[in-house]
Specification:
This protein has 503 residues and is an alpha+beta fold. It contains 14 helices and 19 strands. Strand 9 and strand 10 form a beta hairpin.
Length: 503
């Protein structure tokens, strides 16, 4: 029998502990329940004849959405016929896959929009080093196919929602350490030009078109299929470090010297308003051949992850809660052993905004390492000034791109990938435009560039200061496509004979 005074003390201790749990966990639970309750899927079903992109800010009437046939021979013949008709009738052609660009890069008002998604066949060569894949294939289809053969993608984005053709057209980068953008993994591709002819492009054949169409935003022709270098799938071990931003680069370089075989790296900045960009989580993945390679499986706790992520929109408390969850809870739940394919095989759907009133907007800036710290300092001032609701900032390392004409990595750079929540109103878009222009000016001052697949808020002058080769790029577009058959809103905005308008 426990003495009465000890029973009283025990109950008081339990009550105090319960109160502490309620005080600490209760607000978080209420916050997440409220976020989940309000998280209804309100995305509009577009009426026939309209298209948009993932920004949900570019709803546009087109003359036709043209579905590419599954059969390769039929597709090529019908594409030629479509191009002949377009040139005869003065129609413009835009090319679309998953539509994850945000500035109307897959859209031309009143034009024909080619849907490449059905064009998705693939085959691995006998040595397992080259994947022949059609341009409409999504990475979510490619990764499971490669998994069956013990192979993996060499360079791609952090999500699997995009198509090969789209990834090549924006020359995406990944978080594979020390690598150039995806163009570096391309052996060759077949391109249908505006006159219907098909040419093979590589570093030794049609070299100019090779450099122009990769990162060419669909302005030089239709990428039909591509030969991509692939690598072995492997077992990787995660090591994470939470450090002050000022010491992050030194900490990272020290770890690289200790373990130079790092495969994948990204850093995530603290976005809590009271500690904006002052701390960073560095996540590094090293080979770990000591056990079996984990198989592909559906990621767990996606509803909880989504609630934590979406709960950071328009909420200082939510931003703090997310940082606490990512630094203290998620490492315990997620574990430390992954396969390369597991890390790449994650959809963007789990975190994207589905509300009617708001949407997600991406920015990316490519800054030389020597000036990355001072650029970060400017970001810390610019974003609060414009009331930017930043949900995520990751930093990645990108090596020099020797392959593409309109390159953003003309030297080794740090990529700052920023993810914002924005209301879908003209006033909110104007605020985003003003913030974007100030961020672009800062990136240029620091010797860097901004990424082109996003909202077309940059002035023409900013485009040409960031990309001095842009005039030549557009001139070459008109040489290869003299009737300007392939167009989109990016070309409408910046592709004229003169520098774009100041607004």
């Amino acid at each position: 029998m426990i003495p009465r005074k000890w029973r009283t003390w025990l109950w008081m201790s339990l009550a105090a502990g319960l109160a502490l749990v309620v005080l600490t966990v209760g607000p978080a639970m209420l916050h997440l329940v409220r976020v989940t309750w309000n998280d209804a899927d309100q995305i509009e079903v577009l009426p026939p004849g309209y298209v948009d992109d993932v920004s949900r800010m570019n709803k546009t009437k087109v003359s036709e959405v043209w579905e590419i046939p599954l059969d390769e021979q039929a597709a090529e013949q019908q594409l030629r016929e479509l191009l002949v008709k377009a040139q005869a009738d003065g129609l413009r052609i835009s090319i679309a896959g998953a539509r994850h660009s945000m500035g109307g890069h897959t859209i031309y008002p009143g034009g024909v929009s080619i849907n490449m998604l059905p064009f998705n066949r693939m085959k691995l060569n006998p040595s397992g080093t080259i994947l022949h894949v059609q341009a409409g294939a999504r990475w979510s289809e490619i990764i499971p196919y490669l998994e069956q053969h013990g192979r993996s993608v060499e360079v791609m984005q952090s999500d699997n929602s995009f198509t090969v053709g789209g990834s090549l057209s924006v020359n995406c980068h990944g978080w594979q350490y020390g690598r150039p953008p995806i163009a570096s993994t391309v052996e060759s591709f077949r391109l249908m030009k505006a006159d219907g002819t098909i040419v093979r492009c590589s570093r030794g054949e049609n070299k100019e078109l090779f450099s122009l169409a990769l990162g060419g935003y669909g302005l030089f022709g239709i990428i039909l299929d591509v030969e991509l270098r692939v690598v072995a799938n492997e077992r990787l071990r995660l090591e994470q470090y939470i450090v002050p931003v000022d010491g992050a680069l030194a900490s990272f370089e020290r770890k690289i010297l200790e373990k130079p075989d790092v495969r994948m790296v990204y850093a995530r900045l603290n976005i809590s308003p009271d500690k904006l960009f002052q701390e960073v989580i560095i996540s590094m993945f090293f080979p770990d051949p000591s056990g079996e390679i984990p198989g592909l499986e559906e990621p767990g706790s996606m509803k909880l992850r989504r609630a934590v992520f979406r709960g950071s929109a328009a909420s200082a408390y939510g931003k703090k809660l997310r940082w606490e969850a990512e630094t203290k809870i998620q490492p315990l739940l997620a574990g430390s052993i992954f396969s390369r394919n597991q890390l790449l095989n994650e959809s963007a759907d789990w975190y994207l905004d589905r509300s009617m009133d708001s949407t997600d907007i991406l920015h990316e800036y490519f800054i030389p390492r020597a000036t990355a710290g001072s650029f970060l300092g400017e970001m810390r001032q610019i974003i609060p000034k414009h009331r930017g609701d930043v949900l995520n900032v990751t930093v990645r390392d990108i090596n020099t791109d020797p392959d593409t004409f309109l390159r953003y990595a003309d030297q080794p750079v740090s990529a700052f990938v920023l993810f914002f929540s924005q209301s879908r109103t003209p006033a909110a878009d104007a605020r985003m435009r003003d913030m974007t222009r100030e961020m672009i000016d800062a990136s240029i001052r620091h010797g860097g560039r901004y990424y082109l697949p996003y909202r077309l808020h940059a002035t023409g002058d900013q485009l040409h200061r960031a990309y001095p080769q842009a005039r030549s790029f557009f001139d070459l577009k008109r040489q290869h496509d003299p009737r300007e058959t392939f167009q989109n809103q990016f070309y409408l905005r910046y592709g004229g004979q003169t520098v774009g308008d100041p607004e």
